[in-house]
Amino acid sequence: MAAPKKGRRSPGGQGRPGRVLALILIAMVALTGGMFASGHTTPRLGIDLAGGTSFTLEAKNEPGKPNAINETNMNTAVGIIDSRVNGLGVSEAEVQTQGSNHIIVNIPRGTNAKQARKQVGTTAKLGFRPVLTATAGVKTPEPAPSASGKAGDKDKGDKDKASDKPDDKSGDKDGKSKESVKPSGSAAPSASTGQQGRAVSDALKADGTPSPRATASVSDGKNGSTDPKKDEAKKDGQSPSPAPSASGGTDMAALQKKLDALDCSTPQGRAQANEAAASARAEDPVVACRKDGSVKEILGPVAVEGTAVDKASAVFDSQGGKGWLVQLKFNSEGAKKFADVTGKLAAKQSPQNQFAIVLDGEVVSDPSVSTSIGGGQAEISGGFDQQGAQDLANVLSYGALPLSFDVVTETTVTAALGGEQLRAGLIAGAIGLGLVVIYLVAYYRGLALVALASLACSAVLTYTIMVLLGPAIGFALNLPAVCGAIVAIGITADSFIVYFERIRDEIREGRTLRPAVERGWPRARRTILVSDFVSFLAAAVLFVVTVGKVQGFAFTLGLTTLLDIVVVFFFTKPLMTLLARRKFFASGHPWSGLDPRRLGVRPPLRASRRRPSAPVDPKEA
Amino acid sequence: MSRLGSLGARLYRGEVGYDFVGKRKIWYGISILITITAIVGLAVRGLNMGIEFSGGAVFTTPKTAVTSAQARQTAQDASGHTAVVQKLGNDTLRLQVSDLTPDQSRKTQQALAKKLGVDTDKVNTDIVGPSWGDQIANKAWWGLGIFMVLVVIYLAIAFEWRMAVAALIALVHDLTITVGVYALVGFEVTPGTVIGLLTILGYSLYDTVVVFDGLKESSKDLTKQTRFTYSEIANRSLNSTLVRSINTTVVALLPVAGLLFIGGGFLGAGMLNDISLALFVGLAAGAYSSIFIATPLVADLKERDPQMQALAKRVRARRASEAAKADSGEPRDGEEHGEDGEPQDAAPAGVVGQRGRTDGRNRGGRGRSQGRRR
C-alpha cells in the first residue's frame, strides 16, 4: 500500500509540496466540475431518506433442483423483475442483486407500491400455450365473434382434451418476418386477417426461413395420435371429455369479447393485459398481447410449462444459412408433451398451428409449427438477429430457472419520514463535526487549521464522489451510509492526530519545526497506512459478505477510509510542509499549537550547555 | 489543554506514567470480571432481539391525534398479535408487532391507516419475514469470522503473531462486553446494532494497531541493549502514545455522541440510535482494551520468548552490577559525558528518571533507550 505512494511522495513531499497541493486542488475542482457537468448536485438518496418502497427478495431453489442459485440465474431474474416493475410505468425502479441470493427492488415514492409488490412477489411464469386466435393489437372496433369464435372453441375443446398442448414452433420474435403470427383468413376469427399485410406465414414457411424444425428426428408421439394425448390428459388430472369443451364454449365467447376490448397498442393496456394473463390459471385460456403490441391473441391453456425447458441457447447456424436461431432442450416429460402438442398443432391451419411462448402473461414469441417435434429438442428459427435470439433464449432459460422468490422484507417510507431522517442525519453530522472542531481547536490551536482544512478537503472529495457514484454505479445514500460518513469523521481526524503527535514528539526532542515535520512523517505515515488498512479491511469484508443496510454502511466507511489516505498524503502533509516555513508556526507562536514551551520542551541544562540554540531555531523562520 | 500538552510531554519523556504492564494482573482481573458479567448477563437475560430478527412489522404513523391505546387496539384487532406502541416526540406513533406474516402486516397497515384517516401509504411500514434476521445474523457471523482470520494474518505479517493474538483477544473482549451491555441493559438488537458491532471490529483494531505500531517502533533494537526489558519498553511506548489514544478516542466518540443524541433525542428510535449506541459502548471498550489488555498481553507473550528471557536476565544482571557501582559512588557526571558522545542526540532529556521506578536512577544515565532512537 505504501510503496507506490512513497515513490511519488519523496520528490513531492519535501521538495515540492506546492505542486502536490495544486494537484489535489485540481482534482477537487475537476470532481466538482464533473459533478455540475453531470447535472447531479446532490447524491442520489436511498429509499429510507427519499421515501418509497423497498423489497428484499430471497431466492429459493425449487424443489428437486438444488444449486440453482447462481450468478447467471440471479442476473436473469433481475432482468425479468426489472422489466416487470418498470413495465408498470414505474420510472426509476431499481432492481439489483445483493449478496448471493437476494434481490433488492427499490421503488421511488409516488408509484403504486401495492401493484409493484404484486409484480415483484409473483414468480415469473413461462409457459407454452397454443394460439387460438390472433388479431391486430389495437382495440377491435366491431367485434365479430360469430362463427370463428366457435371454431376456436372447438379447437380449444380439443386441445383441452388433449391435455396440454404446447408446442413449439419456430418463430421469430419481433421485427422481420413475423410469420408466426399471421392471421390467415380461414379458421381465424374475425378481424384479424387483412389488416396486416404480412399474413403470410405459410408463404414464409415455404421460403424455408422461418420454419420450425425438429433437430432430433425421432419422436414418439408424432402426428399427434390421440392415444397419447388422452394419456396425458389423464395424467394432468384434467377431465378429458366433453366438460372442457362445454365450458370452453362459453369461455370462448367471453374471451372473444375480452380480446376485442384489449388494447395492446399502449404500454398501459399491455401492462394490464399482462397482469391479467399472468394471474390466470395455467389451465384457463387467456387473452394476451404480443410484446411489441402489434398482435393480440387468444391462447389456450398452458401446454408445456416453462420449467420443462432444460436449456435454451442462441446459436448461429452458419451451415444451414438460417442465421440466428434458438435451440431448446426439454426434459423428458416436457419432450413428450411437446412432441404431442406440436404434432397436433402441425395439423392445423394458421394461426392455430402456432404456439405462444408466454412470459408473465406477455407473448414473447409465437412461432408456428409444421411438424411434430419429438426427441425433446427443438429449434426456433427465422428472422432473428443476434439480440433477438439471445433475448428469447434468455426468456426461455428463465422459464427453466428453478428459482422462486420470497419477499423477506418490505419497507415503506413516506417522504415525510424520509426527509426527517435525512435532516436528523445531517444535524447529527453537523453536531459531531462541530464537537470535533471545537476539540481540535482547543487542543491543537493553530494546527487545528490544518486539520480542519484537511477535513474540509475530505468532505468535498467524499461529497462529490458520492454524487458522481449515483449515476455511475447506482450508489444511493441511505441512512446507514450517512452513519458511516459520520463515524468516518473520527477515523479521518485520527490520521491528523497521529501525525500532529509525531511532530510534537519530534519538537519535544528539541527539533525545530521543519525537520520535525519531515522526520515525523515517515513514522506517522506508516501508522496511518497500517491502521487505515485494518479499517478498510473491515469495510471490505462487510461489503462483500453482508447484505442490505450493512452494505451501504460498509461502502461509505471504505470510501472515506481510502479518501482519508489520499487527503493525508496529498493534502495534509504538503500543507504542513508549507506551513512549517511560515514564521507563525516555525517560531512556535503560542497559538500555533507548536509552542515548544507548551509542549513541555525544557531548555534543559545539559542541552543548553551543549547547544545554546537547541529547542527553537529561529533561523528557520 | 496546554496542561494536557505538557502532561503529554512528560508522558512522552517517561517522567510520569502509569505502569500498565506491571499492573496488568489487576486489569486482566477487571476485564475477566466484566467479561464474565457480560456472559452471565447474556446467558441469563438473553438479547432483546428486534422485529428484524423475529419477523413482524414496525409501523410509524404520521402525526396523529389517535392515542397510543387506540392505535394498539386497532393493530391488535387487525393482526391478532400483541402490539407495542411507542409515542415519539413529534406526535407520531411507532407500533411494533411481532411474528406477523407479510400478509397480516399489510392488513394491519390498512387498518391503522383507516383508523387514522389517512392513505395506506402514509403509514411507514417495515415488514420483515422471519428468515431475514437469521440471514443478517448469519452473514454477520460470516463477516466476523472472515475478518478475524484476515486480520490475524495481516497483523502476523505486519507485526508478529503475538500481537495478532493479543489484538484478537482484545477484539473478542470488546465484542463480548458490548454484547453483554446490550443483554444487561436490555437494548433492542436490530440490524443497526449489528452494523455498529461490526464497525467496532474495525475501530477497536484500528486503535490497537496504532498502539502496536508505536510498540513495534520502540522495541526494534531491543536485544541490542541491556537497559530495559520488553515489558518496560512496552509500558513506555504505551505511555508515550497515551495522549494520542485519548485524543483519538475523544475525537471518535464525539461524532458518535452526536449521533446518539440526535438518534435518541430526535427520532426516538431507529437506525441512527442503534448504530451509535453499539458504537459508543464498543469504542469505549476498544480504547480501554488496546491499552489495558492488548499491550500487556503482548508483553506477557513476549516475555516467554527465550530471546526476551535472555534479555531480561541481562537487564537484571546489569542492574545488579550498576546498583553495586552506584553504591560505590560512581560520579554521575560520567554518564553525562557518555551521552554527549552520541551524535544526533539533541535532547536527551527523555531518559532521565524513568518514571520514578525504584531503579530508575540507576538506569537513567547512559544513552537513550533504544526505543527512542530513530
UniProtKB/TrEMBL annotation, chain A:
Residues 74-131 form the Protein translocase subunit SecDF P1 domain. Residues 183-197 have a biased composition (Low complexity). Residues 151-181, 227-237 have a biased composition (Basic and acidic residues). Keywords: Cell membrane, Membrane, Protein transport, Translocation, Transmembrane, Transmembrane helix, Transport. One of its GO terms (cellular component) is plasma membrane. One of its GO terms (molecular function) is protein-transporting ATPase activity. It holds the Pfam family SecD_1st. Residues 302-402 form the SecDF P1 head subdomain domain. It comes from the Bacteria. InterPro entries: SecD, SecD/SecF_arch_bac, SecD/SecF_CS, SecD_1st, SecD_SecF_C, SecD_SecF_C_bact, SecDF_P1_head. SUPFAM superfamilies: Multidrug efflux transporter AcrB transmembrane domain. This is Protein translocase subunit SecD.
Automatic annotation (TrEMBL), chain B:
Residues 111-303 form the Protein export membrane protein SecD/SecF C-terminal domain. Its main location: membrane. One of its GO terms (molecular function) is protein-transporting ATPase activity. Residues 363-374 have a biased composition (Basic residues). Residues 316-374 are annotated as: Disordered. GO terms for biological process: intracellular protein transmembrane transport; protein targeting; protein transport by the Sec complex. SUPFAM superfamilies: Multidrug efflux transporter AcrB transmembrane domain. It is a multi-pass membrane protein. It is found in: Cell membrane. One of its GO terms (cellular component) is plasma membrane. Belongs to the SecD/SecF family. SecF subfamily. Part of the Sec protein translocase complex. Interacts with the SecYEG preprotein conducting channel. SecDF uses the proton motive force (PMF) to complete protein translocation after the ATP-dependent function of SecA. This is Protein-export membrane protein SecF. It comes from Streptomyces mashuensis. The gene is secF.
